[in-house]
Amino acid sequence: MSRAIQKNFRGLRALVMMAPDSNCVTLQQTLLKLGLEVTLARTPPAGEAGPRPFDVIFFDADDGSDAGWDDSTLTDLPLIALIGSEAPSRLARVIHTRAASHILKPVRSSGIFTALLLAVNEHALRMRQRQEMQALHRRLAGRRVVTKAVMRLMTGCGLSEEDAYEWLRREAMQRRIPMEDMARHAIGLGPDPAQDAGSNQGRATRPD
Amino acid sequence: MVPRLELPIGLLISQTGSYEAVSRAIHAGAELAIDEINAHPGQPVKITPVAIDPGGNLAGYVDGARVLLQDHGLKHVVGCYTSSSRKEVLPLFEKADAMLWYPSHYEGFETSENIVYIGAAPNQHIVPLTRHLLRQFGTRGWMVGSNYIWAWENNRILREAIAASGGAVLGERYFPVGETDLGDVVAQIIADRPDFVFTTLIGQSGFAFLKMLRAAAEAAGIDQPRDMPAASCSLSESELPMLGDAAAGHLSSSVYFSSIASVENRRFVGLWNARFPQMGQASADAESAYVAVHLLARAAARAGSTGFAAVREAVRDLSFDAPQGRVTVDGDNLHCWMRPRIGRSRRDGSFDILVEHPVALRPDPYLTWTHDARDGGGRDLRLIQ
């Protein structure tokens, strides 16, 4: 299934982490033309106030310092690497950050829109895949509970395996909850704590 | 008396090749402005042109740009027509700290600090045309085009607007540049009876298509201009003579038509007709090149210099009372504020202007600030008739 791509970036908040040189000037000018709000910084402005709200981060992959590169402050945002040196040690760092796209230096106005479009859309895809993966993990983990509930219904209520399963399915549908949650109810367990954490994380992504 | 500033410029405009009709009009428009400026002793600059004919080939543009920028050391070149030629030479201009004055409408999604874009951006051509088609004719469209970026991107914008309006794209076909074997697609269009046909076919393909569509519609008893009009963002006065009996009744979105009623345009058209009577009526491409040279001369005069950086700063927010009306270079993206217009072609090789934007519209090359093309937009487009 194909989704509409995001191609308008008006109002997106960009954090640009690089030295204020001519590359930085070209990048900033072009981002402003594209309607983004730009914040310049040498390191991630995390810390006491918590992570600043940004929608996309540009970082200089040639920058020597790894200080401030704490993955937890930069998770869940599309990253775009500015690359001058193609030395593997530098590129390994780009891989490590999971940058969703890159811009080669010297920075030209051409190529910035492409890098931004690829990063934002690639990131959105990754977020959707992560949510799907979390849902699958939950279902997988829940299978043990479902089996247990079916067994309980078979032994406790004298149902056949098929009837027990069908009863769980129908009850879950009527209550509009996942089958796994219904199974937890049936064997007297509370709601699944892992699931709530998962769905919160899903909501943290910025809608298109 | 202050001596006049010598302004050497390059002209990188094809005089031969597959789109020579349009490209010759561009060259002629530039010549007209150069001669006009040089003949006027009161003008602060005097222009010396160096012309190279790239012959419509990409390699010709690259070689030509090298000669103009490296051998002649020029800082200002008026030229290019296709987007591919512009993108091909741009790195040379960036390296040489030189400015390309680009005299054509294009599909947008570019903002170089080494190009002044004199032609219309997409929010000034395809977006107003899309609104007009969806409002006046319906939401069932057929798209046919030459197979390259200009067609793909314009069709993308139109397709999204049609989908958002709950309409339907009945067909979308692309052909190699120059293809004239278009009988099958014309038959299919007649069978589908769309509300309108949007064409991005260029050159010979475009002429063949419009002629065949008109003939097939007549044979089927369809009043094609009224019930199934063909619309484009490029059909101009230079091309209408090639359409013969099928010249009338096509819609075109453009910032210039030779029929604009203004003092500046009457003067321009008079000069054009006296100088180039064999080239058809004055067209958007000719006017755009004429405006490019005038803006360049004014920017150099304002800067008191012909240097790249000085002229670039001087051209920001600079205005010129052009044949199409006042044109202002946007200080931010170096595209121009202009008034979109929609014309309907006449048998005599000119256009009736049906719709014109009441004021100059800010250029929006990335369509960042432009609402969806389906957006009512009734407030910003004024129907003339």
Distance between the termini of chain A: 17 Å
CATH class of the largest domain in chain A: Alpha Beta
**Oligomeric state of the chains?**
heterodimer
Number of E-type strands of chain A: 5
Mean pLDDT of chain A equals 84
Could you report the average pLDDT of chain B, rounded to the nearest whole number? 93
Explain this structure.
The complex is a heterodimer of chains A (208) and B (385). In chain A, 51% of the residues lie in helices and 12% in strands. Chain A has helices spanning 22-33, 71-74, 88-97, 112-157, 161-175, 179-186, 193-203; strands spanning 13-17, 37-41, 56-60, 79-83, 101-104. In chain A, helix 4 (112-157) crosses helix 5 (161-175), helix 4 (112-157) packs parallel to helix 6 and helix 5 (161-175) packs across helix 6 (179-186). Mean pLDDT of chain A is 84; it is low at 196-208. Chain B has 2 domains: 5-120 and 260-337, Response regulator (Rossmann fold, 3-Layer(aba) Sandwich); 124-258 and 340-383, 3-Layer(aba) Sandwich (Rossmann fold). Chain B has helices at residues 20-39, 58-71, 83-96, 126-136, 149-164, 183-192, 203-219, 224-227, 263-275, 284-303, 308-315; strands spanning 5-12, 45-52, 76-79, 99-102, 115-117, 140-146, 168-175, 196-200, 230-232, 251-254, 319-322, 325-329, 336-337, 341-345, 351-356, 382-383. Chain B has 385 residues and is of the alpha/beta class. In chain B, helix 4 crosses helix 5 (149-164), helix 6 (183-192) packs across helix 7 and helix 10 packs across helix 11. In chain B, 38% of the residues lie in helices and 20% in strands. An 8-stranded mixed β-sheet of chain B has the order 7-6-8-9-10-14-15-16, with helices on both faces. Chain B has a 5-stranded parallel β-sheet with strand order 2-1-3-4-5, sandwiched between helices. A 3-stranded antiparallel β-sheet of chain B has the order 11-12-13, with helices on one face. The interface between A and B is medium-sized, with 14 and 14 residues.
